[in-house]
Structures are given as C-alpha cells and as structure tokens.
C-alpha cells in the first residue's frame, strides 16, 4: 500500500485513501499536488509485517478535512469501544460461571474501614501488659460499624450449627490395614532400660552401602544434606555387633510439641533443647505424620513419593547415637544405669493438619475422616507425652496472616480475607458437621486465612479420645511471655527431667525470644477494631468450650 505522509498520517485503508482531502487517488504526484508542490515529501510504504519507525513524524492539524475522513475516524473508535465491551462481558461471564461451578462465588464484603493505630513494637511473644498497651481502641468509623450486623448473621448461623460430638475411635486392626509397612517396622515393645522409646534393628547393608542414599529428606532438601553427610561418616562406628550381625539403634520421640503454629512453639523448642537431657530430631519440624508420609511437600504442588517411616526414623539417629553411648557404658552394664535422655519432635502441624486423609482413606458417609494422626501415634506410643502451646486465636490468626501472606499485606486486606473465610466456613456448616468442615481439605485450601487452626477445642477433644488428659500439657503463650521461668518449670516437671544448675537454668530462661514478628510486619500495626470484634464473636463459643474442658477460664481470652 502507498500513502502520502503529508495527508494520510492515520494510515487509512487503501480503499478509503481516494477520499482523502489532499490526495485524489493512488496516482498522487508530489509535483502536481497543490499541497505537496515544491516539497520533497517521502511516501510511506507499509505491508503486513511489523514496522519500527526511527523518526518522529510531525502531525499537522488541518481543520479543512472532509467530513468523510472524520466519520471514518469516529467509526473506528466506536468499533474499538464495542469490541472492548464484548471482551469485558465475556471475561465477567467466565468468572461468574467458574465461581459458581466451584462453589466459591461470594457476596462482596459489606464492610468499610476506619482508622487504625500503627504500632511498630508489637511482637508474637510480648507480655500481657505490653499487649494491653498495644491494643488501645482506635477511633470508630460509623460507616463500617453500621454494617457489623451483616457479618454477625453469618457468625450466628455458624454458632447455631456447632455440636461437639465425640468421634468413634478406630480399632487397631483397621489402623494396621491402612499402614501395614509402618506396623512392620515399629515394634510393639521398646528397650526396658531406656526412658525414651528405642529398639535395635538388624542392619543388612555392607561397608560400601550408603544408609541414607534413599532418604527423602536428604534428597529433596539441600538444607539437610550437611547433617546426613555427618551421619554417613559416623554410621559404622555406632553399629552394635552381636553374633556376626550388625544392629542399629532406632528411636521414636518420647514427647511431641504438636501445636499450634504462631503460638510460640519455636521459642519453646529453642529453650527446651538447651536442657542436657533433651534431644530433638535433626529437623525441627519434619511434618512426617501429617504430610511427608503422604508424599506432601506443599499441598498446592501436588503429591511426591511418600516418605517411608525409615526416613523419619533416620532423623533421630544423632540422638540415638548418644542414647546408645549411655546404654553401652560401663555403668549401664555393671549397675543397670537407666538412660534418661529423651527425644522430642516439634512439628506444629501435628495437632491440627489432617488435610491428606481424603486422598488416602475411604470417605465416611458424614464427610469426616475415619482416621486421624493421633490414632497412629497412639497405636505405637500409647505412653507418649504431648505439649500444646496456644494463644488468643484472634491474635494468632493475624500473626499467621502477617507471616504467610506474600504481598500487599494491610489491615484492610486482612479484614477482607476474614470476611471471605467466614462466608466459606458458613457454607460448609450448612451442609456438614463441625468436624467435617474443620478437616475439609477443599475448604481449608479455599479460605484466604486459616480460621480453622484457632478452633483449638475441636482438635483437643479429638486427641483426648485416644490419649489421657494427664499426657497432654496445654500452655498459653501469654503466660509464657510474661513468665518464661514458670512455664519452663512446668514443662520440665511434665517431662520428668533431671535437675538443673543455676547456670543451666539461667541459660534456658534468660535467652532472647525466638521467632518474633518481623519489623516490616510490626509496622502495619494492629488489626481493625471491627475485624477484632468479628473474630472474637466467631471464636467465643470455641473458647468457652476449651475453658470448660481444661477447667481454666484463662482460655476464654476475655482481654479486649
């Protein structure tokens, strides 16, 4: 196509070029044209290929253009507008149909947001007196307070559906059918002269065999390869030889710190590991019982190969070597000295995360999981001890959001996510039981914030169906933050640990707090007052039941 650069700056189609005011058809001649006469104009050639212009063209405004050209321009803009509206309509229709299909179509949140007070010094492990200063009420904006009843109706619906029904505990034969390999590896009885559950297992490899070659923790995580490199070097030095056979000492944890996330479990772990009689797994949070044994690294990434129980037991080899040293010492052989070293494991998902059950176990008619994590732990370790650290579920949820949200964090965004999660939880409660919704993998993945993790009493009651109450120590982060020494003494007594020197006790109780809130998260300040009021209403019936179960009104978290 050939266009005059002087008059066809908009590159009109070839068939319209004849109507151009300054050009009278494709045979335009610069010398004869009254406008172009005497000027050296450069014709512009175009084709279907993409073009890069390396010059800036000067556009001259001429008010004497014909109405035909003007009409063409208006017609082009109108077509573009209509086309854009059609595309927008199609996109909106696709979104609505997709949301309806998955049951995720939500009513927009009716809330408006008021002012909030920023406080950069707020931390996860702060004392009660500190938190009282941090959470002074902000000035209330009437616009969103008027909308409070709307979301209160959702909470009232949820509350009306709450029923704490005792679950049916599966028998040992049902458990054995589900995990036959696990039952073939872990024995029914442990060594009588060890406080920690341990046993000797025959090792059939030779000196050239790498005992950790197939360990999934070593294969999938570069962080742990240094640990396993060390274990390879010392492995053969810790084998026990008896009647021309080699045996290795295997151990399970004596106690588990089972939850909850963002409740101070890391700080408890860091202090407890300083006790001379306590050892932990090579990895703080193996998440084996809840995720890795199902092949879950991140649920959103799908499933990998399942981690066998041997991979989990490998994580306790460092501690097992030290226990073996005690058992094979002269004092143990001559005087029957008891091993008092105990091993702990601190996966904060153990208490609550049963999301994988629906993919591996037959579904029940009520949508509730037929087997839970505690069923299997109790089957192997009926005498295990369990430690739970809890905090105000309202503050736990906000801390959880700040820690795990990747971008665009704000108190307004948190509020929106809370409202959306409550609507999703209500939809589930209209059709299913409380337990079915709490352990519902689809719902838990759909909720923008993890509301369900703060329903402490639901999980605790399920653990109490298999373990005795005196086997579970429940602590509050607020108490731990205000008096570390007191809570640590409670833990030492619960685990029946040996006495400490003044220097050892000072090291444990006076060390700085672990895993505090990041500075960039502290700068956001507290949540909106309306968000806090909504969450307090939601968690109130669950806290009330928890206080009744534990006979302690401190778990009502009445502080506002």
Automatic annotation (TrEMBL):
- What family name appears in the similarity comment? Belongs to the sulfotransferase 1 family.
Membrane as a keyword? yes
Q: Name one GO molecular function term.
A: N-acetylgalactosamine 4-sulfate 6-O-sulfotransferase activity
Supply the SUPFAM superfamilies for this chain: P-loop containing nucleoside triphosphate hydrolases
- InterPro entries, per this entry? CS_Sulfotransferase (IPR052654), P-loop_NTPase (IPR027417), Sulfotransferase_dom (IPR000863)
State the coiled-coil residue ranges: none
Q: Which gene encodes it?
A: Chst15
Which source organism? Probosciger aterrimus (Palm cockatoo)
Q: Which UniProt keywords apply?
A: Membrane, Transferase, Transmembrane, Transmembrane helix
Q: Work out whether the entry's keyword set contains Glycoprotein.
A: no
| Transmembrane segment boundaries | 78-97
Annotated Sulfotransferase domain ranges read 253-517
Q: What is this protein called?
A: Sulfotransferase
